[in-house]
Specification:
mainly alpha; about 0% strand; about 270 residues; globular; two-stranded antiparallel ribbon
Length: about 270
């Protein structure tokens, strides 16, 4: 039974990969826009560090590495699943999805993972280009640090998918996703540390960010990679990240159950 279920959801991921390869231009354009955005952010930080050995307790080498990891994590899970869900809701094709012998949340996760595999190749190339262009950075010192970084990346992918998925379900209650998507992106970019490392936040705002799931998307993986978050602090951050993934999964289930009350399928 489990093998059949895994095979079914692997098929969703495989179809997503095929779709990405077939309609690759939109994905490439999306990746290029993200890279250009980060090039601008990088230029701003380069100006901030100009003539300075460090800003706060960040050396330029660590900040360069932070920006590359931020680019990688921000682009790894795009908003494509958000728009796919909203499009299905607005067009009524969600009814077809409900007829499939598959859990919609799990199938959406499988599709997102398939897309992320393709997007990961493009963003990895972009990150390598950034790394070569900007010079030496900071790297994990040992195999354990690399392993913990990978774990933090998996938590980041799950967290971002669930946030995108829950916000996408809001289309059951609104005619347009645009405003909701901008709100989600704004909150994610700000509180994840994608724009400004959380270490630069004032104390009260840092406390707020610590209580939110967004920090698991950029701040924790970047901290794990550079060594800024290590030892007991990293273990606690990963445990909190897992707890948030479980909580967001249950919240997504609750929102979906509420949304199903608004669905009316007519036919015969």
């Amino acid at each position: 039974m489990l093998r059949l279920a895994l095979r079914k959801y692997r098929r969703f991921a495989a179809l997503a990969i095929q779709e990405t390869l077939a309609y690759r231009i939109p994905y490439i354009v999306n990746m290029v826009s993200i890279v250009v955005t980060y090039a601008v952010i990088f230029g701003i930080w380069a100006a901030v560090f100009s003539g300075k050995a460090s800003v706060g307790d960040y050396a330029w080498a660590e900040m360069k590495t932070y920006l590359v990891i931020s680019l990688f994590m921000s682009a790894l899970v795009s908003g494509s699943s958000e728009y796919r869900t909203s499009r299905q809701i607005r067009t009524g094709n969600i009814a077809i999805e409900l007829l499939r012998p598959a859990d919609y949340q799990l199938s959406s996760l499988s599709i997102t993972l398939g897309n992320s595999l393709c997007e990961g190749v493009l963003v990895s190339l972009a990150c390598l280009a950034f790394a070569f262009a900007t010079g030496p950075g900071v790297f994990p010192p040992d195999a354990l640090s690399w392993a913990l970084f990978v774990v933090s990346c998996l938590i980041a992918i799950a967290t971002k998918f669930l946030l995108v998925y829950v916000f996408g379900l809001a289309c059951f209650w609104t005619n347009s996703l645009m405003g909701i998507s901008w709100l989600r992106k704004g909150l994610t970019d700000f509180f994840s540390g994608a724009l400004i490392p959380l270490a630069f936040f004032p104390g009260w705002l840092m406390t707020v960010a610590d209580w939110l799931p967004f920090r698991n998307i950029v701040w924790v993986p970047a901290g794990a990679f550079t060594g800024r978050i290590a030892g007991a602090d990293l273990a606690r951050s990963l445990a909190v990240g897992v707890a948030w993934v479980v909580a967001l999964w249950l919240i997504a289930r609750f929102v979906w159950s509420r949304a199903m009350r608004k669905v009316t399928i007519q036919g015969g």
